């Protein structure tokens, strides 16, 4: 008998939760679409630089409330892509990483230096939302040859990634995509299916996430970070599935500590 | 009175629908986590290269079914990151794009050449899933200094992006993220809220997406690609919202053509 592996369902996107906390992001353009990009970026704690000769009231508002990292009020220039780069620092890090036989201590040190370089000097994403299709395409090509990740509004062909409809409730985030086929439908699914079902009377998903996070982290501490990983995951899965969303919304710290006590006993019995 | 703009809800991720169709992606590692990465990548039509000395049965299965672009059965080497790059071709494209005063025709030509370069020579993403933390970190640093986008399994600090729980029904794709706090909960939301509500008797979201896509594309043809964009969007929004998901699942081509006739009359009246 042939083994069964999940069958490929082609023609989708790769849906990902991008981490841009404290990382520089460049937005070229100052209109409503640019403002919507800036909003999503700020929700993910990015350091946003906007380059545009004219800006909308929303971007003005972000700027006045110190939500932008930098506002550059002029047309885009090629050098903006590498606006914060520091060539000598970059060359130094590259030479250090290329040295033969690095010790793990040296790698750790380089890790934090390269992390710093990335957070201070390198754009994690480039987004353009300008009305000029030729210029858009030119910025796209410049960005790609310099190995940047870019989204060009209104030019799906020139996008490494698309946006979609977002449901957000603190730690819980959901992206709905129709793979470009019906953006309106994704908003309807958000309004008519996600919101009513995720914000029901008696159910609080942020409380649930807090409660499950408390159990997960404390169990790790009790049993040991690198001990019984599979057993821990299995135990948490069973516990999570044993109660309804309503019940998980109501549990208090003493209930959670009781669960942890049970978990400790059960996992130690396995030794 | 101060204008109201959406308030920032910080500490989230930036949820994105990544486009990797026909683009090379490198997976370092051959175990179960690597296999799950490969599965997600193949669902988005990526050209997947796996580098690993030993591979799981699932990856073996993908390879035997010609689903991988290349399988390299040995340990990772630094040169793997630029495995398909072609320096002289890349330099040529860079010189061409740097030429002063490019015409829009020249930019179009470069667009397709650079697109080809990216699809044939450049990794769009790097994913590692190996048991060696020092080596993982080293690959991460190499990748970042070369401006690649990377996810290192089990090392959240060394990730440009995270995966989450995915609901998939053909064109409809949904990503559920707890921002790392409770992966199990995201799977429960998938099973207990998304599946039952999106796969109800009498509701077929793929039919709905097809129907709404048919209307969107045909209206564009009738009214003209660049005409009345705002009015078209508004009309489609109103139409979409006027019927239930059940009704949209039942409409046939003749119903849609009647809607389009109404739309045409209404939008032409506006002239």
TrEMBL record, chains A, B:
Keywords: NAD, Oxidoreductase, Porphyrin biosynthesis. Residues 172-193 form the Siroheme synthase central domain. It comes from the Eukaryota. It holds the Pfam family Sirohm_synth_C. GO terms for molecular function: ferrochelatase activity; precorrin-2 dehydrogenase activity. The keyword DNA-binding does not apply. Its EC number is 1.3.1.76. Signal peptide: none annotated. It is an enzyme of class 1 (oxidoreductase). Pathway: Porphyrin-containing compound metabolism; siroheme biosynthesis; sirohydrochlorin from precorrin-2: step 1/1. One of its GO terms (biological process) is siroheme biosynthetic process. Gene3D superfamilies: NAD(P)-binding Rossmann-like Domain (3.40.50.720), Siroheme synthase, domain 2 (3.30.160.110), Siroheme synthase, domain 3 (1.10.3280.10). The keyword Mitochondrion does not apply. Residues 204-262 form the Siroheme biosynthesis protein Met8 C-terminal domain. This is precorrin-2 dehydrogenase. It comes from Ascoidea rubescens DSM 1968.
């Amino acid at each position: 008998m042939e083994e069964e592996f999940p069958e490929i369902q082609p023609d989708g996107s790769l849906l990902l939760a991008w981490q841009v906390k404290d990382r520089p992001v460049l937005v070229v353009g100052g209109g409503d679409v640019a403002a919507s990009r800036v909003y999503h970026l700020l929700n993910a704690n990015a350091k946003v630089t906007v380059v545009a000769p004219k800006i909308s009231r929303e971007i003005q508002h972000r700027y006045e409330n110190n939500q932008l990292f930098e506002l550059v009020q002029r047309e885009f220039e090629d050098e903006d892509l590498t606006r914060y780069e520091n060539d000598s620092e970059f060359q130094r890090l590259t030479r250090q990483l290329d040295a033969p036989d690095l010790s793990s201590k040296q790698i750790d040190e380089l890790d934090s230096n390269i992390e710093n370089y990335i957070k201070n000097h390198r754009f994690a994403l480039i987004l353009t939302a300008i009305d000029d299709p030729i210029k858009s395409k030119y910025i796209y090509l410049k960005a790609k040859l310099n190995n940047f990740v870019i989204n060009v509004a209104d030019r799906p062909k020139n996008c490494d990634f698309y946006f979609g409809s977002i449901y957000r409730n603190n730690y819980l985030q959901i992206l709905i995509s129709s793979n470009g086929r019906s953006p309106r439908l994704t908003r309807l699914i958000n309004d008519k299916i996600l919101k009513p079902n995720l914000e029901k009377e008696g159910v609080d998903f942020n409380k649930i996430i807090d409660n499950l996070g408390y159990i997960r982290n404390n169990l790790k501490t009790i049993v040991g970070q690198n001990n019984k990983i599979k057993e821990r995951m299995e135990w948490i899965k069973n516990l999570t599935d044993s109660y309804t969303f309503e019940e998980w919304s109501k549990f208090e710290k003493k209930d959670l500590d009781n669960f942890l006590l049970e978990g400790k006993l059960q996992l130690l019995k396995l030794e």
